[in-house]
Amino acid sequence: MIASDPDAPEATEDQLAQARPFAEVFPALAEAMRKNAGGRPKADNPKVAVSLRLDQDVVARFKASGPGWQTRMNRALREAAGL
Asked: Which residues lie within the region annotated Disordered (predicted)?
C-alpha cells in the first residue's frame, strides 16, 4: 500500500545520495530529543522479570486488593525470605 500512496513517492537515487543523518541536519533538535527520551528514571536496585507459577487463589487474593498488588506481593515475599 505504501508504494501506491501518491503522498509518499519512492525516493530517487539522487535524493538518497543527498540524504544526511537527522542529527547532522538538526543537531539542536536531536540533542533535545535525546535529553527528553522520557521513561522512568533508572532505579538503584532494578527489578528482575521472572516467570513464576503460583496458585490461582494466591494471585487472586493479591489482585483483589487493587492496584499495587505486585508491589505488595514483592513485599510479602521479601518478608518471607527475611529481607
From this structure: 1-20
In eight-state DSSP terms, residue 5 is -
What does pTM read for this prediction? 0.50
Is residue 33 situated within a structural domain?
no
The CA radius of gyration of the chain, in Å to the nearest whole number, is 25
Spatial contact of 22 and 30, defined as CB atoms under 8 Å apart: yes
Q: How many domains does the chain have?
A: 1
User: What is the span of the domain harbouring residue 57?
Assistant: 53-82
Q: What is the pLDDT along the chain (83 residues), one digit of tens a residue?
A: 666 788 888 889 999 999 999 999 999 999 988 887 777 778 888 889 999 999 999 999 999 999 999 999 999 999 999 99
**If you ran DSSP here, which 8-state letter would residue 82 be given?**
T
Structural domain contains residue 61 = yes
